[in-house]
Amino acid sequence: MDNIVKLNELDSIREKFSLKGKKAIVTGAGGGIGRSTAAALAEMGADVALADVRIERAREYADYIAGKFGVRTIAVECDVTEEEQVEKLIEKTDAALGTIDIVHSNAGAIGAGYDDGDIDFASWRRLMAINLDGMFLVNQKVCQYLRDRGKGGAIVNTASISGHVINRTEGRHSVCYPTAKAGVLHLTKGMAADFCRYGIRVNSVSPGNMVSGIHHEIPGEAMDAMAEDCVMKRLGSMNEIGGAVAFLLSDAASYITGADLLVDGGYCIW
User: Fold this and answer.
1) How far is CA 156 from CA 5, 106, 123, 269, in A?
2) How far apart are alpha carbons 129 and 135 in whole angstroms?
3) Which amino acids are annotated catalytic?
């Protein structure tokens, strides 16, 4: 084939991994995964908008990241279940950073109690609103923004091993959270297929049982059991998620869309 790239014509991989000059949004940036990926994107050169309902926490992390990595950051209060607030997030980021190129749609929540088949309907609706409706709103509004400006971009959604398997909780089984995260996997594929024509890539990451803060109400013995179920026999660390997200948002992943990257220590091998 005449279009085979010769060895001396290969692009620089180092440059492809760089996010220098990119403008990013991270939702749920007040949590462990969000703040970790915001820091990762900043370290790779991106200016970052940290969005969360916990605005004071987002401001604290934004100030720290800006000081450490010498990038521009802003903190934006945003409830991803509210369409108007998602639109305002995009407007504020565009105004402050000049544009938007990449987004980690990460905001999510687990129930205060065990999410089994007896979950009350109000709790079901709240969890679905945050974990799936909010994910859709961020994806839709960002894709529309990128399309309307005639530019490509990339989105990474936070799914979960719960989208692949059903979580066990002391003899019961989670219902709502896995349903929502399975929806995120298919939302990712649908948006990837629909907006690919505009140069927009949409992928997801599925973290396993990681010490991120979202599990703070789960008893220690339950977390130990989760670790035992994993092939690596340990929980994941916040040092082990940012790189996966940064990769999928970078040009090093330019031929990847509609994919899910498991970051689970082998949990889903079983």
Assistant:
1) 29, 8, 26, 23
2) 9
3) 160, 177, 181
pLDDT in tens, 35-77: 999 999 999 999 999 999 999 999 999 999 999 999 999 999 9
- In the Cβ-directed half-sphere of 93, how many Cα atoms lie within 13 Å? 30
* Alpha carbons 184 and 109: distance in angstroms, whole number: 13
Contact residues for 27 (Cβ-Cβ < 8 A; gap 6+)? 34, 51, 52, 78, 80, 89, 103, 104, 105, 106, 107, 134, 138
Condensed to tens digits (0 to 9), the pLDDT of residues 136-165 reads 999 999 999 999 999 999 999 999 999 999
Q: E strands along the chain, which residues? A: 23-27, 47-52, 73-77, 102-105, 153-158, 168-169, 172-173, 200-207, 260-263
Numbers of helices and strands, H then E, in the chain: 9, 9
∠ at Cα 205 (141, 247), nearest 5°? Answer: 90
The pair of three-digit structure tokens given for residue 18, joined into one six-digit string: 């760089």
- The separation between CA 258 and the C-alpha centre of its own chain, rounded to angstroms, equals 14
User: Amino acid letter at 12?
Assistant: S
Q: Determine the Cα–Cα distance for residues 82 and 79; give it in Å rounded to an integer.
A: 6
- Residue 177 has what pLDDT? 94
Backbone region of residue 187 per phi and psi (left: phi > 0; alpha: psi in -120 to 50; beta: other values): alpha
Instruction: Report the C-alpha dihedral over residues 188, 191, 196, 199, rounded to 10 degrees.
Output: -90
Residue 248, SS3? helix
